[in-house]
């Protein structure tokens, strides 16, 4: 089996590739085994590879990484009820499974959904993690039609989907940040205003407060400052609350870890209190149900995946260098098996 993996905690220089790893096996009765066509990488892969999430999850090496997958179901566990062999699927796998940058991945059926039929897997494999994150954040903030929404880092993987969902699904007025040459794309995706973050600080430009601020750029105080009293700030960095950690981790945090997480959240809780806003650290919860909802939007053309570039799996190290440059517009895709998903290839 082909796979990209890390040999130790560290940067992209610790990434290696092999085409002769043992094939992954079905991981349980509630799992499906997927033959991977395409995968995608996210900043969390870089953080996890560098050992920065070790306090929450420890990895043995070699470690096959990657969360996002598009592929075909090859085997189903005896307790699976929704998916069948041959289904064309996409998903964001859980934390405890071996990663998606491999010829095969086993994942719980509950996090894998039928992929949109109108788009190649080489595009939709980039949707699950960022699409679920953006959708779950907007839903947590209960965004209503006509409300003012601010989304920082509009040109990134999360931002490009969040802008489209906020505008075309939740019906909001959308303000975002992006450099000059990306403004046209961001407006095309649905942004009503684009603030050039290289020239101005958004907290100085936004005079009328927003109902919902999506902190994708890790600036909690600036986001709280531009949000109405009792408005909602959804943040993507920082420690999860103990309740969120329980939802996303394979092993629920114990007494000590709960207190560490509470302490880590103290500064942001105080900022939120100071500005009178509600504040929640959002962590993507893998969910086939939410992916089904996103499939509907993708098939209707309400939202579309934005792909920056595609690398062959053997170049995973280069792909990670590109991701960590922080300059990608939308998603970085890894082509794992280009003999699959033929109807979308000439
Ligand atoms: N909690 C969760 O579950 C979760 C899920 C997904 C992502 N995240 C986090 O969310 C963050 C964003 O992820 P991503 O995948 O969207 O990142 P990304 O794709 O790597 O973002 C890159 C883009 O951001 C733009 N950018 C960089 N700095 C900016 C700034 N200060 N203001 C505005 N735009 C800026 C860059 O545009 P230019 O080239 O023009 O600079 C580039 O287009 C990461 O910190 C990630 O760890 C968390």
UniProtKB/TrEMBL annotation:
Enoyl reductase (ER) domain span: 10-334
InterPro entries for the chain: ADH-like_N, ER, GroES-like_sf, NAD(P)-bd_dom_sf, YIM1/Zinc_Alcohol_DH_Fams
GO molecular function, one term: oxidoreductase activity
Keyword Hydrolase set for record: no
Gene3D superfamilies xref list: Medium-chain alcohol dehydrogenases, catalytic domain, NAD(P)-binding Rossmann-like Domain
Family membership noted in the UniProt record: Belongs to the YIM1 family.
Name used for this protein in its record: YALI0D02167p
Organism, as annotated: Yarrowia lipolytica (strain CLIB 122 / E 150)
């Amino acid at each position: 089996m082909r796979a990209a993996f890390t040999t130790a905690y560290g940067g992209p220089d610790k990434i290696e590739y092999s085409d002769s790893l043992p094939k992954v096996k079905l991981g349980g009765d509630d799992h499906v085994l997927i033959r991977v066509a395409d995968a995608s990488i996210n900043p969390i892969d870089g953080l996890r590879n560098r050992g920065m999430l070790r306090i929450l999850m420890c990895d043995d090496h070699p470690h096959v990484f990657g969360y996002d997958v598009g592929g075909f179901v090859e085997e189903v566990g005896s307790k699976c009820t929704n998916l069948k062999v041959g289904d064309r699927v996409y998903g964001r796998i859980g934390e405890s499974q071996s990663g998606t940058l491999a010829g095969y991945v086993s994942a719980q059926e509950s996090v894998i959904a039928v992929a949109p039929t109108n788009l190649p897997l080489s595009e939709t494999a980039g949707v699950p993690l960022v699409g679920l994150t953006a959708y779950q954040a907007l839903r947590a903030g209960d965004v209503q039609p006509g409300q003012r929404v601010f989304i920082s880092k509009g040109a990134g993987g999360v931002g490009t989907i969040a802008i489209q969902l906020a505008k075309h699904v939740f019906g909001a007025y959308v303000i975002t940040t992006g450099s000059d040459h990306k403004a046209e794309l961001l407006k095309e995706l649905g942004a009503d205003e684009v603030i050039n973050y290289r020239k101005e600080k958004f907290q100085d430009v936004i005079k009328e407060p927003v109902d919902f601020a999506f902190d994708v750029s890790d600036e909690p105080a600036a986001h709280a400052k531009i949000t109405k009293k009792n408005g909602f700030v959804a943040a993507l960095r920082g420690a999860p609350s103990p309740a969120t950690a329980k939802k996303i981790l394979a092993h629920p945090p114990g007494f000590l870890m709960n207190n560490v997480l509470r302490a880590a959240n103290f500064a942001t809780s105080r900022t939120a209190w100071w500005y009178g806003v509600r504040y929640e650290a959002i962590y993507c919860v893998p969910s086939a149900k939410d992916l089904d909802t996103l499939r509907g939007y993708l098939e209707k053309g309400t939202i579309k995946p934005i792909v920056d570039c595609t690398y062959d799996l053997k170049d995973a190290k280069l792909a990670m260098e590109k991701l960590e440059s922080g300059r990608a517009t939308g998603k970085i895709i890894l082509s794992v098996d280009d003999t699959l998903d033929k109807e979308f290839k000439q």
